[in-house]
Every structure is written in structure tokens, then in C-alpha cells.
Amino acid sequence: MRHFTNSEIIASLDWQPLVEALREGFRRGAHSPPRPHYTVSVPDARDATLLLMPAWSEGRYIGLKTATVFPDNGRLGLPTVTSYYMLMSAKDGRLVATLDGGELTARRTAAASALASSYLSRPDSSRLLIIGTGKLSPNLAAAHAAVRPIEEIAIWGRDRSKAEAVVGQLAEQGIKAAIADNLEQEVRRADIVSCATLSTEPLVRGAWLRPGIHLDLVGAFTPTMREADDEALRRARVFLDTQEGAMTEAGEIVQAMASGALQGEDIQGDLFDLARGDAQGRSGPDEITLFKSVGCSLEDLVAAELCFVRCAGR
């Protein structure tokens, strides 16, 4: 049985191969039931969340990720999300590998956004805005830049020092980025806006979205959270990572459905539909597109399998 550290996961999951593995994974499909999540009370802090994410593909592999989300860990200098992954044979049930979940989750999440962007953003997209300064931010910047000819990257966060840290991390990867000081101004000029925060109030306003923009919403993984307002959903063609997960968990979707800003028939499809050609992606240069993800255990399974096969040679 092999254990893969975060550094080994980074080394084995290059962006292009991972995006293509996810494309094939969504095309092929797997058993990926909705994740149960449980509220955990934390003394003198906001409630935490425990998530269990199983997935399996007959004759291939079974995977299970456990994840905890502690929203106030930042003030303690600790990661908000902590996760671990177990990969088992679907032929005999043996545990074949364990993986540190932090980089596995960050890279598969960012790669899923890049996969969606390959269908939904303009092929000539060159200006990228990242909203949020957590672990996902540099991953999203690098992943989007792997599928589109990105020339300018701006990083916005409530804490400028954290935004500067993200810019520094990207510089270490040879990716040039700059601080975004005015959020509205940067949204209005961006080709792609990728948002990964724990916000419970809209950060992106629909009125700011110019024709041709692609909005990638990665945070807001519970019904009480959201990163974009109802107007953004009204103006855009809306796509999800999975229908089953996002329709019940994604804050923007749940709240817009409740307000009447979004109807079920307004949802254009999910990554399964896009990968299989059952839904049309971007249909014109001036169209506004929106991708909402809450995470899918199929993505973890695909990423863990790719890491195992590339590193273990089987």
C-alpha cells in the first residue's frame, strides 16, 4: 500500500493531463452519490462541516475522501479545509493507496473549473481575475492559464497581504500576477472571473458582467453561502458541475431558485452533459456564461487514480 504526499501529488498531476482525465471521467461516468455533510459545533467559533465523499467505478477503483471545513481556522494560522483520501481496488476491495487530501482536492477542483472553461469561456480569453486568497487561488490561476491564453492575472482579496502572498506563490511558478484593488473595476474588464471564497454575501454583481465574460463560482458549497447575486444568474447561461449536488448545495443556485430569479429549465447542463456533447457550451462571443461547482467525488476518484497510475506504474 502506497501513501502519496502533497508534494508527490503536485508532481504527478500536471494541469493538462488532469483536465483531460476529468473530461474522460465525466464522459465515462462513475457512481458518485451526493455527499453527506454534517454540522460540527466549535467552541467560540463558527460551526464546522464534516463531509464524506465516496465514488466508485466497476472494475477500476473505489475512493473515499473525508474532509473538514473550519471557517475560522485562518485566525489560527491553520488551513480552512483538511482532507484525506483512500483509494481501493474495485476488483477485490484492497486498499492500494492513501493520499493527502489537500493538494488532491485543490488540484481536482481547479482542474474541474478549467475543464468547464474549455467549453464555456471565450477561446481568446486573456484577462483572468481571481477572487479569494485561499489555497485554491493559485491553483485556479494556473489551471485556467493551462486551457486559455491568459496574459493578465489579477488577485483580489479582503486582506491585501494575503493577496500579495498569492501573487508571490504564482511568481514562484513562473506565473505573473498583480494585486486587484478595485473589485468592480476588475470584474468589468475581465474575460474570466474565478471566485473561491467562503462568502455569505454576493461579491460579484450581475450589473458588472460585460458581454462575453465567463464567471466561475467555486465557493458557496452550502445553501447559506453565495458569491454572486441573482442578477448574475439571470444574465448568464448557467452550468453546474453536477445537477444532483449543485441543485441542493450551491448557495447561488438554491437562493436564486427560491427567489424566482432562476428556474429549473434555466440550467443548461452539467459537466457530464458537456463532456458527452449532450449540452452546448458557449454559443457566441458575447454570451455570458456561469459555471457553479460544489465539488464531486468523481473528480477525487479520477485525480487519485491518475496519481496512483502515474506514480506506481500500474
From TrEMBL:
GO cellular component terms, semicolon-separated: cytoplasm
InterPro entries (alphabetical): NAD(P)-bd_dom_sf (IPR036291), ODC_Mu_crystall (IPR003462), ODC_N (IPR023401)
Molecular function (Gene Ontology), one example: oxidoreductase activity
Pfam family, any one: OCD_Mu_crystall
Signal peptide (residue range): none
GO biological process assignments: carboxylic acid metabolic process
Family named by the database record: Belongs to the ornithine cyclodeaminase/mu-crystallin family.
NCBIfam families (alphabetical): PRK06141.1
Protein's name according to its UniProt entry: Ornithine cyclodeaminase family protein
Organism: Microvirga makkahensis
